[in-house]
Structure formats: C-alpha cells, structure tokens
Design a protein that fits this description.
There is one protein chain. With 187 residues, the chain is of the alpha+beta class.
Length: 187
C-alpha cells in the first residue's frame, strides 16, 4: 500500500514516519520525502485513522485526494533537488518537474498556483533562498560557491533575489546575530 504524506521535508521526518508506521505493526519498504510504501496491501480503517491522528500530532498530514498529492509531489521534488541533491540537472526546472510527475507543466503550474497561491517558480526561489541562508549560516562556502551550488548565473543574481526575499544582503544576513531561517514545511 502507498501513502502520500505532507510536510515530510528531511531525513528526521522520514525516520519519524517510519517509526510511527512500525509501531502500528506495518512494514515500510520505502520511505521517501512525502511518499511511503508498506508491504501490507490492506489496512483496517481504524488503524488508518489512528495513523492519520498520530501523523497530525507530529506535524504531518496524510494526503488522500489526487490534487493535494500531486502538489505535494511537486513540492517534494523541489525540496529534494535544492536541499538534498548534489546532482546538477541539465534542464530547466519546469521540464524536470513535468517529466517527474508525467504531466504538462502548464497544467501543473496552473494547479499549483490555484492551490498554493504562489507559482512553482516562486516556490523554487523561496527554497533556494532558504538553502542559501542555511549555507551562509554554516560559513563553509563562499558566496560564489553558494551561487554555483544553487545554479544561479552569478553572485549578483543570488544577492538580488536574496535581498528581495529577505530584505537583507547575504553579507548583512551573515553578520546578523540572530539569523532568520524558516522550517521547510513553512515555506
């Protein structure tokens, strides 16, 4: 059986969901961001409702309608690519997403905007800026290296988007004593 789960944005999320399912006597065979497969082909309704409640207490949501699952899949693809993948995609994000979910990008873009009140492009920018904030806070890479890692054409392009989103330049953000970062599920 397959589950789609909203707000799974990190490895700790995957571990928490796996542990919860195992506590319910299920046998997860695959646990990915927003997507879980268990060995069981059927699950009692009472167990399913309990899982749903437990997930909510952990800040997750069991997705059941097709549109919501598609939106979450798009979000998970973006988060995975920006925050966790070192692979550089050799195509633009719209083609990458479209191929990954097997839908026309125009349809996906319209659906995403109507559902989330933000375009996929804006969501991608917010994720990139959040990743840039994380990398700046770690203070291990130069701004040039960060721009390259996040596939910006230049440091100036990254800096302009960074300031537009945060109100601060990357240098100001770095020097700020309390760096403002957001959790990925709140972006």
């Amino acid at each position: 059986m397959e589950f789609r789960i909203k707000n799974m944005v990190c490895d700790r999320c995957k571990m928490a969901v796996q542990k919860l399912l195992e506590q319910q006597g299920l046998h997860p065979t695959q646990v990915e961001l927003g997507h879980v497969i268990v060995q069981e082909s059927t699950i009692e309704e009472s167990t399913l409702q309990h899982i749903k409640q437990e997930l909510q207490q952990l800040g997750f949501e069991l997705l059941q309608d097709r549109t919501t699952m598609l939106i979450e899949k798009i979000k998970n693809i973006v988060v995975e690519q920006i925050h966790y993948s070192d692979e550089r995609i050799n195509k633009n994000f719209s083609d990458f997403i479209s191929e990954a979910v097997h839908y026309d990008y125009t349809y996906l873009s319209k659906l995403f905007s109507e559902t989330e009140d933000i375009s996929i492009g804006q969501f991608i920018i917010l994720q990139k800026i959040e990743r840039a904030k994380e990398l700046i806070a770690y203070d291990e890479l130069t701004l040039s290296q960060i721009a390259d890692q996040l596939h910006y054409s230049s440091v100036a392009h990254l800096s302009n988007q960074f300031k537009k989103i945060t109100g601060l330049t990357p240098s100001q953000f770095k020097n700020e004593s309390k760096q403002r970062r957001s959790t990925l599920d709140n972006i």
